Input
Amino acid sequence: MAENTRKLGLIVNPVAGLGGRVGLKGSDGLHVQRKALALGAVPHAGDRAIDALDRLGRVADLEIVTWSGAMGEDAARARGFSPRVAGSSKSSESTADDTRAAAVEMRERGVDLLLFAGGDGTARDICEAVGEELPALGIPAGVKIHSAVYATNPLNAGELAALFLQGRVSALRSAEVMDIDEDAVRRGQISAHLHGYLKVPVRSALVQSLKAASGPGEEAAMAAIATAVTDSMEPDTLYLIGPGTTTRAILSRMGLDKTLIGVDAVENSRLLANDMNENQILASIEGRKAGRAKIVVTPVGGQGCIFGRGNQQFSPDVLSRVGRENVIVVSTQDKLNSLAGNSLWVDTGSRKADEMLSGHLRVITGYKEEAICRVAS
Output
């Protein structure tokens, strides 16, 4: 091996994100993964890893060390690399143990950077295996991505990995690995825990921040937003209300129950459906005239993502049918201020959908109060 060879470790959690579009709130556990597949979920973590690897082709003398098959080898070969396969899964269904074993092997082989595709559960497994012993960076592919170890999208993950391997980015920071209890989430309870840190390359425009909870003093602001939205609701129009405490206030004002981490449908002040998945949303908007279906979402606190983090039920297909002009974004001013001037952004899994949503959008911040915010992809 040449002295100037750069060594990239690649781990893909092939089942990451399976539960998103089918409304399962996550993909942790074989029973959830099997249920997601039974509901028609399609694995996409490998495709997102391929997108990230697209930016690595410019790194000279690059060696990729990975795990067999869907855990990294397939993605590397699909992008034209000839990876060194360091190991394989013990069964046909990869597990957290496989991820941890792969991470330990990458450390033993002295990779310069560990690039992994998954969600918070994957980051937790990497953290448990190697901690801060080697630089790491996440390709976002999961449902819930609260951790600050992920790039904002796969292309940015590949871009930052390339910059780091080329020596153009050298600074590292300790970034939080967070995870939540998915079973509790399915019961409408959120409890996020800090599990440790990973050493992540620093480039603020390319890496997402830690998810922040709503502050205790925001109830009045959320109530004002709820009044603004409900007062402007049009008759015979379907409103698809996305996850979050800000959007929950809208249904509360109407005397309706909200699925905290889910999509609910309202029309003519009546609750039509709770906790919808992608197919149910598509069926609900089928045959409706233009403008008679609208999406209401709020940015992820501390991060600014409006599509692609915890609301994958709003798939590229759903978004294209509803249309950008029928997307209503709501946010407290404090939540916008917490972004420190950074843009809102989207990561839907489709470049076409991301580009459609990019530009400037009006954000409802109170009663008869709005802000114009830039949306980046």
Remarks:
- The mean pLDDT is 92.
- The first strand starts at residue 6 and ends at 12.
- The chain has two domains: 6-201, 216-376.
